[in-house]
Each structure stands twice: as structure tokens, then as C-alpha cells.
Amino acid sequence: MPAHSAAEIEQTFQQARQRLNEGLMIKDPESFYLPGNRGMFWFKLKKELATLDVVVVGAEFGAWQTQ
Fold it and tell me: How far is 27 from 39, CA to CA, in rounded Å?
């Protein structure tokens, strides 16, 4: 969906949040998607949420105590 102003982007963002999406993907309409290739043609627009956006990559088994 094209946006022509910051106000249109904000309105579209709020609609996405109402659908429980975490944000929007913003892209240059002329750009191509290249898997694994980062660039400035596509980016995720998010705002602070009360959730964490993380991936667990390791863990330790055991009891944790405070003294």
C-alpha cells in the first residue's frame, strides 16, 4: 500500500497494531527482495512494545538462587 506522508504511515501503522501486528515492513516499491541481503531498501517499522523481540540461542540447566 503506498503512503505519501508521515501521517499516512502513522495511520497504516496504527491499523496494523489494531490487527495485533508488531509493525510494518517499509520498502522502496522498485526494490527486489534478496534473501539474506541487508540493505536500505526494506526495513521494519516498530515502536516500543511491552514485549521482547528476542531469540533464545542458549540456556543453562540448574537452580538459581539469591542470597
Answer: 10
